[in-house]
Specification:
There is one protein chain. The chain has 74 residues and is an all-alpha fold. 66% of the residues lie in helices and 0% in strands.
Length: 74
């Protein structure tokens, strides 16, 4: 949901990380909150990519970010 199409599970991850509480309707109506979640989301993906170390070196960082955005970073 929202402009980057976050699923309920990813929003739950953000809520756990940030301690913030909001409904899906509140999220969809609040562009600033969507931007905040997006910033956290991509920083979290960057951390996961960095944790891969040399295993990630042969791949495009943008490609890895796109895959993680659509399919998760686990």
């Amino acid at each position: 949901m929202g402009k980057l199409q976050f699923g309920a599970a990813r929003l739950a991850d953000f809520k756990k990380h940030s301690g913030k509480r909001f409904t899906q309707d509140q999220f969809k109506a609040d562009e600033a909150l969507q931007d905040e979640v997006a910033q956290w989301h991509f920083q979290d993906i960057d951390k996961a990519i960095d944790a891969l170390g040399v295993a990630a070196k042969s791949y495009s960082r943008d490609g890895l970010k796109a895959v993680a955005h659509l399919g998760g970073n686990a």
